[in-house]
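Pipeline run #58 for the internal structure catalog. This entry was flagged by the ingest filter as a single-chain record with no existing model, so it goes straight to prediction. Upstream metadata was stripped on purpose; only the residue string is passed forward. Reviewer on rotation: M.T. Logging verbosity set to normal.
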Amino acid sequence: MTARTESSVTAADEAPPELFMRGLVGHALKRAHHHLHSEAGRQLEGLGLRGATFSALSVICDRPGLRQGELAELLSAERSNIVVTVEALESAGLVVRHRIEDDRRVWQLHPTETGRALCARANAEMRALEDRLLRGLNGRDKARLISLLERIAPPEG
C-alpha cells in the first residue's frame, strides 16, 4: 500500500459527510418528516392538541364507534399509549368511551360535538399547512409521492 500524498486527496474526500446522506431515501424521509412534524406541532399546539391526540381524534371522527384496539392498529401505536391518548381526549371533552354490551372489556370511541368541531378545524388547518409546505408540488406530484410512500409502508385498515 502506498501512502497518500496531499496532492492525491480528491474533492470527494473533502466533501462534507451530509452529501452522502442526501443520496439516502431514509435520510430524505427523516428530514421531510422532521420539517412537517415540527410545523404541524406548532400549529396543533395552538388548538390544544398534539400530534398523537390529533391523529386519534381524526380517526375517531372518521370512524365513530371504532374500538380502542382498532384505533391502536390504525395508528400503528402501542395499546398502552392509546389508552393515555384516549384519556387525554376524554378529559378534554372531545371523545366519549362506551362499553360494548357483549364484551364489557372493550371500549367503543365516539367524538363529542366539541370533538367533531375541533377535528374539522384541525383538519382544515393541517390541510392548509401541508398545502403551504408542499407548495412546490402540484396535485399529481403529491398523489405520486403518497403512492410511492405507501409502496414502502402500506397503510393499515
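catalog note: The chain has one domain: 27-152.
catalog note: The longest strand covers residues 103-111.
status: ready for reviewer M.T.
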